[in-house]
Amino acid sequence: MGSWHIIFTLGIFLAAGLLSGTLGELFRLPKVTAYLLIGVILGPAVFGVIPHEHLEELNPLADLAMALVLFNLGCHFTLSRLKRLFHRVLPISLSEILATFFAVYVGLMLIGESGSAAILLGTLAIATAPATTILVLKEMESEGPISEYTGIMVAINNLVSIIAFEIIFVAVYFFQSDSQVASAFTQLGHLSLDIFGSIFIGVFGGLMISYGNAVIKGSRRIIMLIALIALALGLCRTTGLPYMLTFLAMGFTVANSLVEEDVPKVETELNPLTGFLCVLFFIIHGAELEPERFIHAGLIGGGYIVLRLLGKYFGVFISAKVRKEEPEVSQWLGTALFAQAGAAITLSAIAVSRDPVLGGHLQTIILGSVVFFEIVGPIMIRQSVLRAGEVPLIHAIHHTAGDPISEFQAMIRRFLVSFGLLSENDQPHDEINVEQLYRKNVKGILQTATFNEVISFIEHSHDNTFPVIGSNEEVVGVIRYQDLSNTLFDPKIGSLVRAADLANNLETVVYPDDSLALVWSKFREGSYDCLPVVSREQPHRMLGVIRRWEILKYYIKGHRSAQGIDTKQGH
Hints:
The longest helix has about 35 residues, at about 180-215. The strands form three sheets. This protein has a three-stranded mixed sheet. A two-stranded antiparallel ribbon has the order 1-5. Strands 6-7 form a two-stranded antiparallel sheet. The chain is about 70% helix and about 5% strand. A hairpin with a 5-residue loop joins strand 3 (about 465-470) and strand 4 (about 475-480). With about 575 residues, the chain is mostly helical. The chain folds into two domains: about 5-390, Na+/H+ antiporter like fold (Up-down Bundle); about 410-565, CBS-domain (Roll), CATH 3.10.580. It starts with 5 loop residues before the first helix and ends with a helix. This is Putative voltage-gated ClC-type chloride channel ClcB. One of its GO terms (biological process) is proton transmembrane transport. Keywords: CBS domain, Membrane, Transmembrane, Transmembrane helix.
């Protein structure tokens, strides 16, 4: 193993990411979790398909992915938005930070952990995985207080965790050794320089991006963006500065120095690259996970996981209740902060370089618990915004329009059109009517069906248009998936809203004796994928549906037959 070129590994990762993302949609898992799981399978923990040296060589791309995610997060922090939210978020954030720290610190002490390790693990527990959290929220396209609060709290958590860990580690190191006071002050001086140095690079880079955005136009702008982000990342890696702060500061600077309407354009330009690199980031991260570490962490590791979950949840729950926030915030905001990875792993690695014994112990706990938090965390984030009603319907359910066979037939038709074997303007002949092609075994949605029943119907259908029928089986309207897909999915309305409330007026119907030419013209006039077939004798009583792709399939077969007849007649 490992004799192939690294580009082959890159291809394996991307193909595996495509497959796992599709399976994730099928099983309603966040894509992040699917990527991590496929990484675990490909990595040394299971099949060991990927050479370890390839993982190391691809790590700079993973760092760049993290930098882009943090930059994107920082771009959402305009001063006006922070002023609007900060007085509401800060008390909840402080409560969550203190509850998490003390729950882990005191709890681990009670189950036998040493004081120095327990207090450091308390500071590490504060950190929340920014890439995992933000990308799940972005994937779900969630909007609402939980999504807004989570973004700010992730940034605060990581900032507090980094600073608190460094300060407490210096204090622990000082009290456990014969070091002089001057040594402690030296360490704190280095910490201050690291923090201010990181922020300075981020602010300077952000100003350069804002200036460059004004003077550089067209496709060269994306080159400028990537160049400045890569330069900042390389400078941080070369000097050992914490780059998480750099890119939060860079995004924040861009958000507040660039013309307001241009900020989304910067994010949009970077989105394709960010999405591509994040697939690699999570598969690489998954391949580097070591599930056996979860067992090695033992009682302390299990205690750390449980105590951190309790601290995050109840720290938010109590504060939100006291401040009389919306019930969804108190119930679901804490669970949106469960994911943990990058910052905690990096800080534990720093601890190893400073004190192999203490640091090694911390690293075992963190690496063991990360296996749990990175798999369960994204699932809980998805559930949090879903249950809070902040997710569009398109991301709340699994609905596929069409099926593999119909898509293959449509592809064949496009291929024939491209080579002039079919004409886009041709239509079926008048002698064939709907009676011969429509589907009679398709049912509509009862107008009394609840919202949850409508959702269940949509999930099990390959159509995008759903007839709504009354008590006498008459068609009273249609529900179009594209009209619902961007509306927020709210579980609380499941038993209150009925299909009749969601239905649009019936615009057009088809009769069994209509010609396919007439029906095809109706399809071409609108964006329908199927139309209800109704009875003439009993007005609007539903008989079935006729689908666009079934007419296309018939037309392709009929055209080929006609060509065969013409050829024979020519001979």
